[in-house]
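Example 3.2
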Amino acid sequence: MTQASRELTHSPRTTWLPYVMLAGASLFWAGNAITGRALRGDISPVGINFGRWLVALVILLPLTYRALVAQWPLVRANGRLFLALGLTGVTIFQTCLYLALQTTTAINSTLFFSLTPVVIVALSWVLWRERLTRPQILGILLSLIGALFLIMQGKLAHLLAFQFNQGDLWMVLAVILWAIYSVLLKKLPPTLAQPVILTATVLAGMLFLLPAFIITTLAGATLHLTPLNGLGILYVGIFPSVLAFLFWNRGVSVIGPNKAGMYLHLMPVFGAILSFLFLDEGLAVYHLIGAALVFGGIVLMSRGAAASQDISATNFTN
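Structure, written as tokens:
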């Protein structure tokens, strides 16, 4: 590691910025499920997914074209990895999420997605033999309890009344795919710029998504475009796609998938805040308790990671 890299690793910027980015990604994704449910009657799951990534490409390509061309030999050398990232993170994961939102409830989808950090940790151990310290394990459990407490509105009866439905199967698959995507990010060369990584991943995903969109549309899949639906596609294309994925990829590249996964538990916290700000819903005691548990778990996980650093922060320089 060069002197400049060592200085950057310990600079104040790299101390807090990746965590803010991960929190921002969770904030944008908190609105994705709401938009997906709003669009489900007018546009098919494949159609929503294709639309969001088409918008993302229109935004990304003019900004990253030169860098993509300059780093194309390195992208091509990691072609199989990008195909795997595109298939898991862009094509199948997002489609499964929108398929789940066709039939499952908002509570069920959030409940299953809150298990993602646990799956990421398990995959990290299976693939890379990454072990957790006791504070990290305690942090994951504490944060998970906080997320479940929020989702269940502080009532055990809501958890006991849980009913499994067809949409939940898609959520289970989505959780596994997102965990695979997050863990595979660690295999990317640290010299690749993050915008190039995202653009190449989206291009790879569209190789699978475009034929799926054409086939399902010709087969009669719902595609009812209105100005309001267009705004919904525009939102998921800009915020949960371009910005959230840039933030997530960079955060994972700095602190590793295990710690980054914890920030997905902020989604129900942000959901409560958004409901309070825009839907005139009040904040209850269970909101405060759940949020405190989530933040406490994140703090424990971050401190415990000092004994098992996930990856070097030099990737953050890109």
